[in-house]
Fold:
Amino acid sequence: MAMQDPMWQPWRWGRPSKRAGKKAYLPYLYLLPAFLVMGVITFYPLIYQVIISFTDFQTKDLLKQLSSPELNYVGIQNYVEIVIGGLPVQNFEFFRILTYNLWWAVTNVMVHVPAGILIAVLLNTQGLWMKRIYRAIYILPVVIPPIVVATVWQNIFDEQYGAMNQLLSAVAGWFGSVDPVHIRWLNEYTPPIPWLLPNGPLTLAYYAMMIANFWLGWPFMTMVATGALQSIPKDLYEAASIDGASGSQQFWNVTVPLIRPAMIPAAVYGFTLSFNLFNFVYFMTRGGPARSTEILVTFAYDLVRNLRLYGVAAAFSVIIFFVALVIFLITNRITRATESYAEA
Structure:
């Protein structure tokens, strides 16, 4: 008769012990406080917003909220009026604002990413003096709040006393002009290039905002590109140089492919940030002139702050959520920004 292993105990292979059950529930117990906080500050407001988006919630309903006797259920009327432009708001066209919002985000990314990569490559040059000082300086726009940046650039583009018009006046003086330049950067409605965006004018305010947001946006892309460049082995450049590759060939065939996994998620993040850049847009132009620089989030804020149409604003925010979700899914599908190397 074979001897039984003294270490073998039948109860070990039966149902799990109480201690194992407690260990299984322990991670959920640790996550419970986070779920409660998220439920209060995130999920509850989202659900509440969806509910009031189907009502005519206004100032009269603020006291009793959903129990207000004057609150009416309107179904999808708010959504329909937003899409067809039936809101009691001047110069409002949903698809024009949506088109401009997309154009604003895309053009910013198209400028920020190449500029960030170019500056990072220049600062990564061997033998460059005071390299660390340059990198410390270009990080400043990232740490300055957008509201401060918007206020400063609003003053720079002031029609009477702005630094931009003074600079243009000085340049014009070199060519013999004595008249000061008074360009209405933030107030001129006539677009300089009428055909650039067919369903809405790109006023001078758009170009002023592009200049200001370029100063705000390229340092982040430079930081990401610098980190990606530091991870490229020097041996690859030495091998390419031995094979006779020129500097431009090394850039396009070595640098660009190897920094692509870092720059694509950064570009998607930059697009999302520009798409919802409320503080900068609102405090620099407030959507003007005549809502020509209005983006979706600033218009939603205007519905609440000035018009007090809380139900319509809630419906507009729900639309913004789904627009942003669709854009993210499309960009993620095209760029594979969230795909790991193992899945590639």
Q: What stands out?
A: The CA atoms of residues 79 and 315 lie 6 Å apart. Residues 18-52 form the longest helix (35 residues). The chain is about 65% helix and 0% strand. The mean pLDDT is 87.
